[in-house]
Amino acid sequence: MIAGGIGGTTGDLLMHSLDTVKTRQQGDTHSPARYTSMSSSYATIFRQEGFGRGLYSGVTPAFLGSFPGTIIFFGTYEYSKRHLIDSGVHHSLAYLAGGFIADFAASFVYVPSEVLKTRLQLQGRYNNPFFSSGYNYRSTLDAARTIIRREGISALFYGYKATIFRDLPFSALQFAFYEQEQTWAKEWVGTRDIGLGLEILTGATAGGMAGVLTCPLDVVKTRIQTQINPSEGGIAFANATKLQVQAATTLQNRLNVQSDAPSLPIKKSAQQRRHISTSSPSTSVRKPGSVNLDTSSVITGLKLLYKTEGIAGWFRGVGPRAVWTSVQSGTMLVLYQALLRRLDVNRVLGESDGATIA
């Protein structure tokens, strides 16, 4: 369990900056999109917002959720996998089911941290002049307090179902691919020790393939967790996009023209203006070209994305996600196996020393 926690956390922290790029690409609802290719997005965020407050924004909740989450995951996975195999379940099905069960057990820990991480990644630096996300938290603690105070504690579980729909298939596919590739590698080499190169290759390809296949679910999860509730008002006028400012100016000009014309009976509702609230950092008006899913249903979200953005909408950020899951999975699984072997050696040495003394 400790080996899994160390391996998983190391992989997550190592690739956090690429995860930020992926989150920006998936959550960017500006038209045209601000972030396009992986390399240009990475360079833009680094140049405008820096490393710590830009590319590594949201790293604190990522760490706080990753370590306990991966400990729970690997402990549950090893137990459930061995129990299923001992019960006569086919190995491939046991690996698949083990991944499902383990991820569900860990989800109660990592989903709240995922909500905080995703919002802070989308926001970037505090008072970010380069990207208007609708959020403006001072810190992780401020984000948690603001979300609970304004949206309720249940908001920390926004997108829970979408996260489960993404992570359960991802974990199941990742470990099914990994265990099968490990079996093939051991048969090809002829020994249990397949070497560092094949350890990295099996872990990275398993994570990468699972990441690509579950990318549409990841896009829906990101949109649900970062979408703004229109009923809560709008962001500060100063944070509005240029198109919003132009639209407001055009509307004002029309009103001025109408004011010069002969007065006509107008309903009171037509004279009312919509007030834009500036009191909450987590509110915004609908952005030009945005797709507000306005649903917690993954299936409905997939349909809306396909209808409005096509297949490309399903696979927004697939490049960073493929790289991130490959490197993160490779790092996590290689460290996990290395630490397990090290712990086994120490245990054997301890038992032999005890036998010698006896």
If you had to describe this structure to a student in words, what would you say it looks like?
With 358 residues, the protein is mainly α. Helix content is 72%, strand content 0%. It has helices at residues 2-14, 16-27, 38-49, 51-55, 59-86, 91-123, 140-151, 160-189, 195-213, 215-226, 242-260, 268-271, 298-314, 318-357. Helix 1 (2-14) crosses helix 5 (59-86). It is globular. It starts with a helix and ends with a helix.
Which spans of ≥5 residues are poorly predicted at pLDDT below 50?
230-252, 254-290
User: Kindly state the mean pLDDT as a whole number?
Assistant: 76
Task: Please give the radius of gyration in angstroms.
Answer: 24 Å
Could you tell me the number of beta strands? 0
What characterizes the major β-sheet? none
Q: Give the ordered list of helices and strands.
A: HHHHHHHHHHHHHH
- As a percent range, the share of strand residues is under 5%
What characteristic shape results from the CA principal axes? Answer: globular
Distance between the termini: 30 Å
Query: Helicity range of the residues?
Result: over 70%
Question: Structural class of the helices, strands and pairings?
Answer: mainly alpha
- How many alpha or pi helices? 14
Q: What's the multimeric state? A: single chain
